[in-house]
Amino acid sequence: MALLVTAVGLAAQDSPKRIFADLAKVKGVTSTYISGDMMKYTIAGGISKRAGLSKFFVNGSNLNIQEIKAEGLDLFTADTAEGVKNLRNGIKEIMKKNGKELTVLMEVNEDGNHVRIMSPEAVKDGVIHDLIIETSEEDNQLTIVYLYGEITL
Fold first, then answer.
1. What is the CA radius of gyration of the chain?
2. Which of 61, 67, 76, 80 gets the most CB atoms within 10 Å of its CB?
3. Coil, helix or strand for 130?
4. Rounded Cα gap, residues 74 and 23, in angstroms
């Protein structure tokens, strides 16, 4: 059983889309991975329209998500100042190594709480390739959600 788990873990890290997989090894960071196959059974995997969750209201404008083709999701959390610093530095290094620059699509700041929605690629023809959602409180709590796949607006 341990051999199977190890083989599956190595295969997941070799995926070209799981660019943040190594962040799971960062001190002070907790990680979760959800495969594309599992995503098919989640809201992001296609039931959002049936559940009425495909429309959002942002800054006076309706944002309507037409389709999400999720290939997977990585979730990372840190709840200490050291963990937050390590996680932020890890993301910066990975983005630099991959020649990517994050484009901020939306940002909200309120009383030390921050939410940023970003993409490592420009939005083209109403399609976002990969989405990064970052939430933080002060300097001691950070959550990163990396949804890779296509999101059609």
1. 16
2. 76
3. strand
4. 10
Distance CA 130, CA 35 (A): 14
Residue 64 zone, left/alpha/beta (φ > 0; ψ -120 to 50; rest): beta
Residues 110-138 have pLDDT tens digits of: 888 999 988 888 788 888 888 889 999 88
Show me where the domains of the chain are located: 17-152
Phi first, then psi, for residue 144 (nearest 5°) are -120, 125
Within 10 A of 87 (CB to CB), how many other CB atoms are there?
A: 26
Tokens of 51: 């559940």
pLDDT in tens, 43-61: 544 544 444 445 554 455 5
CB 134 within 8 A of CB 142: yes
